[in-house]
Write a structure and sequence with these properties.
The chain has about 300 residues and is mainly β. The chain is about 0% helix and about 40% strand.
């Protein structure tokens, strides 16, 4: 998500985010209700945008998945846990499935997460028989990071009610709960904003609609779904900077939290998901073409260790 400095987006009314789902094999036991950032905070031209985009070239690779493998094969189970279930707390419409129906390699070095309007397994959701299926993957129990450059190159989907995200949760969520665990949203997009993505921090005293973050918009009315873009954070003690295609658009420190605790000096795990519907994006309508796909070229974490 490209070069010129974006404008800070106007602040939204409160929107609820997604609930964290886990399979029976998950290490986590709780259901976490989260809310969407009312976008706005500092943009790239603001006072917190002075960090370099990345020092990743001189750092060691701590985690990497280039999604190489035969077309139709599953993701590496040694790196990713596949979550299953619906999401009543956020009123999303999809059921996250296991297997390769909604998440598979394409044989060209990409992971493809597909949201479909179908329900071959007769899955039941909070609202009745599920109308959609999709996929959600995380690295819980497989990989965590504390600091570093965390990035993914991906091509996001489009359409009303479509909600892709690349984010992180504190690995202690099972014991301290949310928002005390902390959450770092590296990239979220809601389909009614095709040219805008959001980066947000959630923690105690600044969760939900009080999340701390900003929005980045492509120039000239361009849409993120039209090409691949690289979304990243540079995460250090007492500092996190967000970038799109190497352009930093916000930087956050404890000084931004109004005296609330900074809970980002501990291990976090990664999450990739494609939601359909929910309080923030709204539900699909007659303009929404399905299936939609989140195509992920790679996910990489580099550190100074």
């Amino acid at each position: 998500m490209t070069v010129p400095s974006p404008q800070a987006a106007p602040r939204r009314s409160s929107k609820r985010r997604r609930t964290t789902l886990y399979t029976a094999l998950s290490l986590l036991c709780c259901s976490v209700v989260m809310t969407a950032l009312p976008a706005g905070a500092s943009a790239a031209s603001g006072p917190h945008a002075d960090a370099p985009a990345s020092a990743a070239r001189t750092m060691a690779v701590a985690f990497e998945d280039g999604f190489d493998g035969p077309a139709g094969s599953a993701v590496d189970g040694g790196k990713w846990l596949t979550e299953t279930g619906d999401n009543v707390s956020n009123h999303e419409r999809q059921y996250y499935t296991a297997g390769t129906s909604n998440a598979a390699l394409d044989g060209q070095g990409n992971l493809v997460i597909t949201a479909r309007k179908e329900n071959p397994g007769n899955y039941q959701c909070w609202y009745g028989t599920c109308e959609y299926t999709s996929s959600r993957l995380n690295t819980s129990g497989r990989f965590t990071a504390t600091y570093g450059h965390v990035e993914s190159r991906m091509k996001i989907p489009r359409g009303q009610g479509i909600w892709p995200a690349f984010w992180m949760l504190g690995a202690d969520i099972g014991s301290v709960g949310w928002p005390n665990s902390g959450e770092i949203d590296i990239m979220e997009n809601v389909g009614f904003e095709p040219g805008t993505v959001h980066g947000t921090l959630h923690g105690p005293g600044y969760s939900g609609s009080g999340g701390i973050g900003a929005a980045y918009s492509l120039p000239g009315g361009a849409a993120f779904a039209d090409d691949f873009h690289t979304f990243a954070v540079d995460w250090a003690p007492d500092s996190i900077a967000w970038s799109v295609d190497g352009t930093v658009y916000q930087r956050r420190t404890p000084a931004d939290l109004g005296g609330n605790p900074w809970v980002f000096d501990k291990p976090f795990f990664l999450i990739l998901n494609l939601a359909v519907g929910g309080y923030w994006p709204g539900d699909p309508d007659g303009s929404t073409a399905l299936p939609q796909q989140l195509v992920v070229d790679y996910v990489r974490v580099t550190t100074g260790d």
